[in-house]
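Exercise 3.2. Students should predict the tertiary structure of the chain below and write it as structure tokens, then compare their answer with the key that follows.

Predict this chain's 3D structure.
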Amino acid sequence: MNNHSRRFARIGLLSALLALANCCVAQSQAQAQTPERKDVHIAVGGKASFYYLPLTIAEQLGYFRDEGLNVKISDFAGGSPALQAVVGGSADVVSGAYEHVINLQAKKQIFTAFALQGQAPQIAVGIAKARAASYHTPRDLKGLKIGVSAPGSSTNMVVNYLIGRQGLKPSDVAIIGVGTAAGAVAAFGAGQIDAISNVEPVITRLEQAGGIQIIADARTRKGTEEIFGGPMPAACLYAPEAFLKRYPVTTQALANAIVRADHWIQQASPQDVLKTVPEAYFAADKALYLFAFNKVRDAFSPDGVMAEAGPRTTLKVLPTFNPEVVPAQIQLERTYTNEFARKANQRYYP
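Answer key:
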């Protein structure tokens, strides 16, 4: 073999080695991105409500599947029982209200929110019109039966905050769990409750029926700031801090799916949403569903990222009715992380 031939042989060998090395790197990267756990169980309270629309969109459009996940979603009557499913070990991740993470830390349980779905609570409080004439301030709710999605849930938190600002205690009202669907509407219509704190489309259904007067409205960012004095993060995916540390790729995959859903909602028309969610969500009343969606549209997170002011507002609000929450004892930086949502945005929306 002459020098010319040997040189080309070496070049060929080098090219083959480089190709093999690149292949190994590619395989290693692919393996590194494979979720540590493909089967993930998410607990949610009131999945059909708009509050959790990004979760439904991620499920319906196959975003979890795209990330290599097999996600099971269990629906509970409210956020509090959904949380208990994870605390008790029967589910892995909660799709629930951010404030629960702070409440948990006050009990020495460290959970971390990692993908935001809502930047406003989408909750409204209304009183029966038959009692509206005697209502002037939240203090007038004393002694009344108030329906919430479930005791201890975010809808209950809003009631506690409203009456707490008026010097009342949570025990000064009777809290009754009514869910977030037809049961809530039926309980109000039958007079089983005097007032209600709930989400869409329940509130719009009651408004259109004409029997309710809204007394506090956090269905928009503007209304939320009027009530709480700042932005109030709402639905998010959160899990025990240990889950995020043990399964970072799985957590990233979950965040990717929710961030994609957040972006989809920003671009979707109301009709797109209607065509994507299960038919049971709008209970044969498409017009009402569309109307309710337009009322809460700006409450959805555009990108899954938590604004720093939101957790600070939440930490300011919670101690007004929950003495277990002592701000000086809360490590706010452990209650949420934007690491996964930001990586999801960099990947899909650079």
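Discussion points: The longest strand covers residues 39-45. The chain is about 45% helix and 15% strand.
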